[in-house]
Amino acid sequence: MKLVHLTTALILLGQASAFSPPRFGTRRQRTVTATATATATQLAAGQGFGKENGDSGKTYGDAVDTPIRDMIDSEAAMQNFFSAREEWIPLFRSLVDDVEGVPTTTCQAAAFLGYGKYNQDAADVEIEFHETSQPWRRLRPIPDQEEDRKVLGGFLDSMHQSLVDIPVDERTDEDDDDTHFLEEGRRMLAITRFHVIRDNQGGSVESIDALFSTCWNEIMELATTSESSTGSLIVLPDYELADLKRFADMNLLRPLAWLGIHADFEISSMQRESPAIRLLYKLKAMPTEGYTPEKGFGAIEDE
After folding, report:
1. Does residue 82 belong to any structural domain of this protein?
2. Total domains, the chain
């Protein structure tokens, strides 16, 4: 990978977080740091981007969350999901309605969203989405509480360190680790909104509802703002990663597919210092040309 790509990525990543100072330098500095820490301070498997025990620690490509393969009855699952979240149906409809108030052809769940059951006028009504709307509402992009900021700062510090720990081979112009560094880095850069949900272990209806509400409010925010390569990070310090993956499967991945809008979103459940869900909206492909101050990154194609 050309040096300009890595150097630019490092500079931008150093500006990505307002919660902790940048820990990046030149490609050579990253090599030295990674070499010095490779044997003594490797992050646990699944905890970072560095390789350990055959685990690449990637959060993209094959590592992105996908619906769990099972023998689930999709029709029954849709029925259970949408009947349990009936108050959210107007929001779901707003995500799939076209200009004439009918669902897109990719929406498998149209029958469960009330199309054909309610009159057409009701389908044409746009929902309100703002700071006081209910049950959905527009959330603030950055936590207000200092304790939440500390949790978020620790998570971002861990993400930064994970990037530093990706090894670099200076003998090659381009290798898988360079690509790994840039793929993870650009996903960090895409995050524009940050949330922390403390005291949530997912063991109660209230806890699940709080996480569900935050995730779908952010999906709505990203979709209505409609800016590609943007995203939200939701950190849950008290959650178990395995439980978080199960939540994402039944409450995000499958519903997004049923609504027919899953191609717009990349969902990743991960753990750095804390478990978290990352939602990315219409992430663009890797730039094919270098960065210049005049033009920025050149020749970027949508994924």
Report:
1. yes
2. 2
Contact at 8 Å (CB) between 96 and 107?
yes
In a domain, 281, yes or no: yes
Domain of residue 111: give its range.
Answer: 74-124
**What residues have CB less than 8 Å from 69, skipping those under 6 apart?**
none
Residue 274 sits in the same domain as residue 161: yes
Question: Which token pair is 73?
Answer: 């009855």
Closest CA to 35 of 179, 156, 183, 177: 177
Residue carrying the six token digits 């799939």: 96
Q: What is the pLDDT of residue 26?
A: 38
Residues 136, 129: Cα–Cα separation, whole Å: 7
Count CB atoms within 10 A of the CB of residue 216: 22
Query: Residue 245 contacts by C-beta under 8 Å, 6 or more apart in sequence?
Result: 65, 269
Are 102 and 138 in the same domain?
Answer: no
pLDDT average per 10 residues of sequence, the chain (303 residues)? 44 43 37 32 34 57 77 86 94 79 76 66 70 95 95 93 82 78 90 94 88 98 96 96 93 95 95 94 81 59 48
Sorted by sequence, the CB contacts under 8 Å of residue 118 that are 6+ apart come out as: none
Question: What is the model's pTM?
Answer: 0.78
Read off the tokens for 150.
């500390």
State the residue for tokens 């527009």: 138
Are both 187 and 110 inside the same structural domain? no
